[in-house]
């Protein structure tokens, strides 16, 4: 896919999806259960679950959606917006996970 907004849309889509999945649980949480070798949307009590894998899947899907939507952009938006947007997302994610840094 080529176009002036494809790379821009892919980046913004991935950042938006990852940030919203971590902060707002939208899209719904997706868990991987390594002992069972299965996936699910509900955390099973007593079963170890890896939520980060679900976030990565959502990031890829958000990037693909951003790529498709970016094709409709006819003039390339400034990359400075993406940098500021990514920095703001990183600050929000750091604040959300601050308990890990303050131990």
What does this entry look like structurally?
Helix content is 57%, strand content 6%. The chain is mainly alpha-helical. Strands 1-2 form a two-stranded antiparallel sheet. A hairpin with a 4-residue loop joins strand 1 (31-33) and strand 2 (38-40). The longest helix has 19 residues, at 52-70. The chain is flat. The termini are far apart.
In short:
The chain is mainly α and 103 residues long. Helix content is 57%, strand content 6%. Helix 1 packs antiparallel against helix 2 (52-70) and helix 1 runs parallel beside helix 3 (79-96).
Key terms for this structure?
6% strand, two-stranded antiparallel ribbon, single chain, 2 strands, 4 helices, 103 residues, mainly alpha
Question: What is the fold's blueprint, element by element?
Answer:
Layout: H1 6-23, E1 31-33, E2 38-40, H2 52-70, H3 79-96, H4 98-101
Antiparallel strand pairs: 1-2
Helix pairs in contact: 1-2, 1-3
Work out the helix count.
4
Structural class: mainly alpha
How many β-strand runs?
A: 2
* Helical content band: 55-70%
Biggest pleated-sheet summary: 2 strands, antiparallel
Order of helices and strands: HEEHHH
Uncertain runs: none
- Sheet-strand content, in percent, reads 5-15%
Task: State the distance separating the first and last CA atoms.
Answer: 45 Å
Cα gyration radius (Å): 16 Å
């Amino acid at each position: 896919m080529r176009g002036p907004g494809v790379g821009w849309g892919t980046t913004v889509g991935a950042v938006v999806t990852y940030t919203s999945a971590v902060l707002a649980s939208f899209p719904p949480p997706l868990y991987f259960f390594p002992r069972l070798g299965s996936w699910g949307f509900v955390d099973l009590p007593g079963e170890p679950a890896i939520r980060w894998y679900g976030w990565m899947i959502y990031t890829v899907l958000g990037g693909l959606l951003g790529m498709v939507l970016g094709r409709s952009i006819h003039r390339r938006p400034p990359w400075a917006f993406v940098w500021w947007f990514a920095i703001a997302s990183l600050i929000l994610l750091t604040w959300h996970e601050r308990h890990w840094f303050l131990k």
